[in-house]
Structures are given as structure tokens and as C-alpha cells.
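Form 7-S
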Amino acid sequence: MNSLLADVISAHGGWDRWSALRRVQATIVTRGSLWKMKRISQDETPRVMTVELHNQRASLSPFGASGVRTAYTPDRIAIENVDGSTISERENPRDSFRGQTIHSPWDVLQRAYFNGYALWNYLTMPFLLAMDGVEVNEMSALHVDGEVWRRLNVRFPGALATHCESQVFYIGDDLLVRRHDYKVDVAGGLPAAHYVSDYAEANGIRFPAKRRAFSRVDGVPTKNLLVGIDLTDVCFS
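Output:
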């Protein structure tokens, strides 16, 4: 494992503690301009996100109506009743985004897929970076507001559903993640700078309770808030 990544994982709770856990459940509130760009109505109603830590599985409830939830895996997205019966589904959901631009509208299954893979990534980071097939290398550091931010260049394998293949993570002096840069392939390659803050701890794992993803122009974050996510009632088990 890359030495900086090993220190980052230790600062977030440690690999042994992470390995002993199986899932995380959190109440989330989501906002931002991405949904309007995709012609999706998004309110700020709290919802419950459940993520398996060591398998790419996630579920959001309620989704669209009471008693309805999503069921996400990389090769299938479904909307189902809480008894497990399927309302609608799509195999190989990533294929449905081919040829889309930043302003292409999403249907309800595309929205569910984005929510599933994105939140699975967010709630498993930075431990996700130590998974098999993920390549991690340290880049030159940056000075930001009087603090030195070390950087990790990360290349994800094709089997792992994420925003894009190559991403950059910025690490603060306390070895906690500060920022995360990527392109949203399923939104026409939209560049994003994703800031995390308000760290909290649950069951021995440290995590950011606030996430704010802004669009980037020529590498510089803008004031356009693409997605804002607040987490509460987080429980790792």
C-alpha cells in the first residue's frame, strides 16, 4: 500500500477496524444544481442510505414514494418495494449514459444509479482506495490557505463503478481528506471539485458529515454547487 494512503487510512479509523465492519447506514439530505441540469426534481427531505462496505451494493429509502427503495449494484439498478418486489430495473445501467452531454436529462433509473454508485464511493472512502486493482501514487503537494495539502493520484479499475478512471485526492496536515477532484463521466464528463468537512466519528470510523461538489473550469472550482450532501445519524456496523 502507498505509504501516504496507509497513514490516511489510519487517520480515518484504521484498516483493522474497517475490515471488522460490514455496512454503514446514514440519513442524508441532498441539494444542488446538478438535479436541475438533469431535469430532476430534488427536495431536501431526509432519506436513509444503506451501503455495504466490502461489496458494491447500496440502497436509498424512500425513493419517490413511501415504501419504495433503490437496489444498486454496478451491473443492475432497480426500484423496488420494501418487500423486495421489483417495480422497474435496468441491467448494465452505465451503458444508458453513452453519448450524453452535461445537459442531457436523466430518467428515474439513471438517477437511482448515480445515487447508488456515488454514495457508495463517498461512504467507503478513503478505504476504497486500498481495494484490489486501485492504483495510488503520491503527487506534488500544494499550499492552500496556510496548509500543505498532499495529493494522491488514483486510477480505478474498470470493474469498480465510480465517477471516472483517474481522480485526485487532497490530504490535509491531519491526514484527513480535504478535497476530491474528478470528472462525472455519466454527466458528459462534467469536471468537479468535491470538498469535504465537518468530520465526525461513528463506531471508530472518521467521516466527513458535509460534502460540497462544485463545477471546475480550467481546473479552478466555480461557485456553482453541483451537489451538496449532509450526513446525520451515521452508524457503521
